[in-house]
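Milestone 3.1: sequence recovery, worked example.
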């Protein structure tokens, strides 16, 4: 469970910004509260399985690669504004319980931090993640971090998924390690997004690529967001939630992790990582 920085909430200033293509790693140490273990990806049903209704009995959108967010209330295709939030986030953790709605205490989108601040805060983790997961794996370097930035921006523009949400899921799944291990906790989950049986990976079957090509980094991010031939990405998870408000992001995160929202409507219920949606919102 990621505990260091607030993915989406406002707060006090943290580390200074520097360009995403910088060659050297930052000098700020990574707090010892960071858990670099890799979650067991997502458990969503395969595309050949019958659609699984959400708690609100909303059917999944047609499963196909190239997914897009269909509800204009939550879709965002123009992600060119990178200073699109409030504050920088704080080094704290809030456990959110319940439905993911603002009435249940979950943060409204107006309280999310900006993409630029969020990305800059996560850079120390990106530069350290691979070595902390496995000391034999080379850490993500400056150009690869820059490719993560570019990949998120291109993917968000194509899918309508807010770039901050894509980054939050990416950090939850891999901490930004471009050579993250492919996990197989029930479903094969490769790459930065630990997506559903995708193709993009720079560490599959113990074959590690250094450097990790920019095209592969983009592919990993796109497969996690726009879906694969085997399973849904973030866009369809948001579509399945179907509420048309900020709760679709938190519910969509839970669907991405476990395949559905519990019939209770509570995001801490169900299989897989119980605090997954809360970790994204924190």
């Amino acid at each position: 469970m990621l505990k260091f920085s607030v993915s989406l909430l406002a707060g006090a200033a943290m580390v200074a910004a520097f360009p995403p293509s910088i060659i050297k790693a930052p000098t700020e140490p990574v707090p010892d509260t960071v858990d670099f273990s890799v979650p067991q990806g997502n458990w969503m049903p395969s595309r050949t399985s019958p659609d699984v209704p959400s708690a609100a009995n909303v059917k999944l959108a047609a499963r196909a690669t190239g997914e897009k967010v269909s509800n204009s209330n939550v879709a965002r295709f123009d992600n060119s504004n990178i200073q699109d939030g409030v504050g920088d986030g704080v080094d704290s953790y809030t456990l959110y319980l319940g439905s993911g709605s603002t009435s249940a205490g979950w943060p409204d989108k107006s309280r999310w931090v900006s993409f630029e601040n969020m990305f800059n805060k996560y850079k120390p983790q990106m530069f350290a993640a691979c070595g902390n997961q496995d000391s034999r794996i080379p850490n993500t370097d400056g150009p690869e971090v820059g490719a993560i930035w570019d990949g998120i921006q291109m993917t968000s523009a194509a899918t309508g998924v807010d770039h901050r949400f894509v980054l939050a899921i990416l950090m939850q799944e891999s901490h930004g390690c471009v050579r993250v291990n492919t996990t197989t906790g029930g479903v094969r989950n490769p790459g930065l997004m630990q997506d559903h049986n995708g193709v993009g990976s720079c560490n599959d079957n113990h074959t590690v690529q250094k450097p990790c090509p920019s095209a592969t980094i983009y592919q990993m991010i796109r497969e996690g967001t726009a879906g694969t031939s085997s399973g849904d990405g973030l866009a369809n998870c948001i579509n399945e939630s179907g509420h048309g408000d900020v709760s679709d992001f938190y519910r969509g995160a839970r669907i991405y992790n476990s395949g559905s929202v519990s019939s209770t409507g509570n995001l801490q219920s169900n299989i897989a990582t119980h605090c997954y949606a809360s970790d994204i919102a924190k």
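The beta strands are 183-184, 188-189, 203-204, 207-208. The radius of gyration is 17 Å.
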